[in-house]
Amino acid sequence: MRIGFFDSGIGGMTVLHQALKYLPNDDYIYYADTLHVPYGEKTKKEVREYIFNAVDFMAEQGIKALVIACNTATSIAVDDLRKKYNFPILGIEPAVKPAVQLCEGKRKKVLVLATNLTLREEKFQNLVKSIDHHDIVESLPLPGLVQFAEDFEFRDEKVVPYLKEKLSSFDLKQYGTIVLGCTHFPYFENSFKRIFPEEVDIISGGIGTAKNLKRILEARNQINDGAGDILFFKSGYKVKDKETLSIYKKLLVMLDGISSLTVGS
């Protein structure tokens, strides 16, 4: 059986990339709900419906575990998904806890970058309240980055002006860590590095999710000795055209060159 990965688009590929390092011989299904991307700008009700439809489809394919490789989808639906399905379901959330730990004693702030819906969700708000005892966590929605990624637009000359405009009211020297709280955002590490001071840490939670996935499958004796095969689906339809498959494979190769500080248990 395969491991399922779900996201609204290509953002979850950044988490799949980590999983391939820890479970290189397992086989995967990657489901991108491209008909409805971006999730972060839609209503909670709409997004919940999209998520459950997608996971129903993936369950029918026969998966042994599911990674919700989308911060927005995790915050909205992961608890209810776990009630419905018997296989392990892992989510991903902004790496606020390790970010705060990194900034303790530095007299620096944490800036969480995510989608509007993730930042509005009670799950995120409760996470910050439970950890941010010194009021050092701030947040900023960057929905434009999701669209850039979905358009395969990664050029600094396009991305950097957008980031500069969105961050124009922030004193970047005040921050010790920025949290990439959307799985689409690690694609733009180089653009962030051009804007933030060199000493600022850039972190995301993909590696922690991958490690946890491996631990769970090992405990269930479900590690495969396969070929690392990946089936790609877009909103319920198997991706067969060679051009799209080539792009997806190039994205995974591109991520090999991204070295942001990925953290997690």
From TrEMBL:
<comment type="function">
    <text>Provides the (R)-glutamate required for cell wall biosynthesis.</text>
</comment>
<comment type="pathway">
    <text>Cell wall biogenesis; peptidoglycan biosynthesis.</text>
</comment>
<feature type="binding site">
    <location>
        <begin position="183"/>
        <end position="184"/>
    </location>
    <ligand>
        <name>substrate</name>
    </ligand>
</feature>
<dbReference type="GO" id="GO:0008360">
    <property type="term" value="P:regulation of cell shape"/>
</dbReference>
<keyword id="KW-0133">Cell shape</keyword>
<dbReference type="GO" id="GO:0071555">
    <property type="term" value="P:cell wall organization"/>
</dbReference>
<dbReference type="GO" id="GO:0009252">
    <property type="term" value="P:peptidoglycan biosynthetic process"/>
</dbReference>
<dbReference type="InterPro" id="IPR015942">
    <property type="entry name" value="Asp/Glu/hydantoin_racemase"/>
</dbReference>
<dbReference type="InterPro" id="IPR004391">
    <property type="entry name" value="Glu_race"/>
</dbReference>
<protein>
    <recommendedName>
        <fullName>Glutamate racemase</fullName>
        <ecNumber>5.1.1.3</ecNumber>
    </recommendedName>
</protein>
<keyword id="KW-0961">Cell wall biogenesis/degradation</keyword>
<dbReference type="GO" id="GO:0042802">
    <property type="term" value="F:identical protein binding"/>
</dbReference>
<feature type="active site" description="Proton donor/acceptor">
    <location>
        <position position="70"/>
    </location>
</feature>
<comment type="similarity">
    <text>Belongs to the aspartate/glutamate racemases family.</text>
</comment>
<feature type="binding site">
    <location>
        <begin position="39"/>
        <end position="40"/>
    </location>
    <ligand>
        <name>substrate</name>
    </ligand>
</feature>
<dbReference type="GO" id="GO:0008881">
    <property type="term" value="F:glutamate racemase activity"/>
</dbReference>
<keyword id="KW-0413">Isomerase</keyword>
<feature type="active site" description="Proton donor/acceptor">
    <location>
        <position position="182"/>
    </location>
</feature>
<dbReference type="Pfam" id="PF01177">
    <property type="entry name" value="Asp_Glu_race"/>
</dbReference>
<feature type="binding site">
    <location>
        <begin position="71"/>
        <end position="72"/>
    </location>
    <ligand>
        <name>substrate</name>
    </ligand>
</feature>
<dbReference type="InterPro" id="IPR001920">
    <property type="entry name" value="Asp/Glu_race"/>
</dbReference>
<feature type="binding site">
    <location>
        <begin position="7"/>
        <end position="8"/>
    </location>
    <ligand>
        <name>substrate</name>
    </ligand>
</feature>
<dbReference type="InterPro" id="IPR018187">
    <property type="entry name" value="Asp/Glu_racemase_AS_1"/>
</dbReference>
<keyword id="KW-0573">Peptidoglycan synthesis</keyword>
